[in-house]
Amino acid sequence: MGSLSIWHWLIVLVIVMMVFGTKKLRNMGSDLGGAVKGFKDGMKEGEAAPAAKDDPAAAKELRDSTTIDVQAKDASNHKQG
Predict the structure, then answer these.
(1) Cβ atoms of 22 and 29 closer than 8 Å
(2) Poorest-confidence range of 26-30, 44-48, 54-58?
(3) 52-81 pLDDT per residue, tens
(4) Where does the pLDDT of residue 26 fall: very low under 50, low under 70, confident under 90, or very high at 90 and above?
(5) 20-36 in b/e burial notation, b at 16+ Cβ within 10 A?
(6) Cα distance between residue 38 and residue 44, in whole Å
(7) Which of 20, 17, 30 is nearest to 9 (CA)?
(8) What CA–CA distance (Å, rounded) separates 56 from 1?
(9) Residues 6 or more apart whose Cβ sits within 8 Å of residue 51
(10) What Cα–Cα distance (Å) separates residue 45 from each residue in 10, 16, 35, 67, 80?
(11) Who has the most CB within 10 Å: 32, 40, 52, 54?
């Protein structure tokens, strides 16, 4: 009941591949990679916001990139209804 050897891990890997299939494992891997990338991008945006407080030009650029034009949104709603 000691630690598992490489052969034990290889057997587990083969069983997992037989149960799930390689396509499903590949999809899960790409989903996990996308989630990690999204998390890193979110962390970069979080770090950029405090820097914007000190620099008015950076604050304006950040505000412009995240602001929704309400007049354009209202105009599109009136066309539909």
Answers:
(1) no
(2) 54-58
(3) 556 666 666 666 655 565 665 555 555 554
(4) confident
(5) eeeeeeeeeeeeeeeee
(6) 10
(7) 17
(8) 63
(9) 58
(10) 40, 37, 15, 15, 34
(11) 52
The total number of residues shown for the chain amounts to 81
Tokens linked to 13? 């890997």
- The predicted pLDDT at position 37 comes to 93
Provide the token pair at 33: 């990679």
CA–CA distance, 5 with 63 (Å, rounded to integer): 55
Verdict on whether the full-model pTM lies above 0.90: no
pLDDT reported for residue 53: 57
